[in-house]
């Protein structure tokens, strides 16, 4: 059963509870007259999406980033609590982060994971999502606690990521034993880390998994603002995150965006996105560009889903499909087949000239 966590100051908790209550009443009332936000959504998914949107919007109105982080963490939900995953903080000799070790870990891979949050947040709910990933993928995960903006602008995050990758190699892991992964800004960091690793003359990992990745720090695609009415994150927030990432430095969007990089000679890329999320157009643009440059890339899109729908686990069929596909992608690196999911008609992309070069629009089971 999903679980609700309350923490922090009474004022934050009270406001969050009232927001959740008001959102629930609004969703139920609209559905009673046949007006769901999206017909393919479950009631719980609609409530959660609209609730987190309100939470993010209020957090962005607060006076400072510390208060914003505290407020967002004051109430959150866990789709699958009490999973058999041991969480262990890194030692003083390791990069800052946490090890997530499932009860029956497959020793084939170690996943170096970068959390989302626009580079400015590391929400408490993110650690529970990483626990879910470790359990579902049956893979040991090192989740990097990289430095956050606006206190630490670029290149702090990329420096931290490359240091973590170097550390895993220094511990005896072979490149083919390592998978990079990340969601949202963490997907951005995973893609940029592949480029930095190549520039540093280091070997590429076996695979990169990018979940709803942020691929352009500027403006790109109609969905960035056109899907505000559906998504839990909003277009204006992406621009603020981009400003914080640049800080006072002389960085351009092209310098900081995966879509503008040289994407040749990178590890295979497996990308997942929701068709209703604000980033879906820039994600599709990135997949096209990666394919144009000769990268091995597969993009799966769930048409009715929003940003980071993966976190709902077994409570949402689309999330369950996505997690299963991530596991299949990792097994593909070991020579197993990566079977296509049930799909609708192909979208505009026609990636037909490679084993995993495609876009699929995925039906819920």
UniProtKB/TrEMBL annotation:
Protein name stated in the entry: Alpha/beta hydrolase
Sorted alphabetically, which Pfam families does this protein's record hold? Abhydrolase_3 (PF07859)
Give the keywords, sorted. Hydrolase
User: What range(s) does the Alpha/beta hydrolase fold-3 domain occupy?
Assistant: 111-310
Q: What is the species of this protein?
A: Alcaligenes ammonioxydans
A GO MF term: hydrolase activity
User: InterPro entries under this entry?
Assistant: AB_hydrolase_3, AB_hydrolase_fold, GDXG_lipolytic_enzyme
Superkingdom assignment: Bacteria
